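Here is one chain, start to finish.
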Amino acid sequence: MHPLEYLRSVARHQRADAWSVAIEFVDLVGGWGLEGAELSVAARRLLHRRPDAAPLWWAASQLVLAADPVHLAQQLRDDLLMPQQEVEHDGWRVEAAAAHGDFLILVDNEYNRFAEAQALEIPVMVNVPAGSRIPAQYVERVVEGLKSRGDTAVECSVDGVIVIDGGRAAPFAAELLRRSAI
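Its structure:
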């Protein structure tokens, strides 16, 4: 199966979790040796279908800007599969779907738990997994994608919460925001 056909089949699974889609993409880049224009087109097409997947934005931006994306793909895969560090905490834990600067994107039940804890003055710790810290321009697309799927996505400040950050931030690659002509 051609790499782009494979990506189409991945993208068709709209309810596949964001992490699985990102891992499939980095596996495809590493396994098929996608580089250059073919990599950019594949990334844009997949992001067009799955704009809600913050880890996909995170991986794609690094890969399209990399001098050697094929070798970087394995490292990104390892980062995406890295378990969240355990931290002792007496309050409630929630997980961010995406993060940028001092803001977090919380979705559905995670946001409900966050808001309830804040209202009850219960300390909150927010996990920001590897693959979630992305530029604000991508966060806008993630929120639009989540809302188009019927999810509730809310931007929340990190003020007054403990944040456990699981990884590095993605660079900004403007070409990912362009629509593919093909």
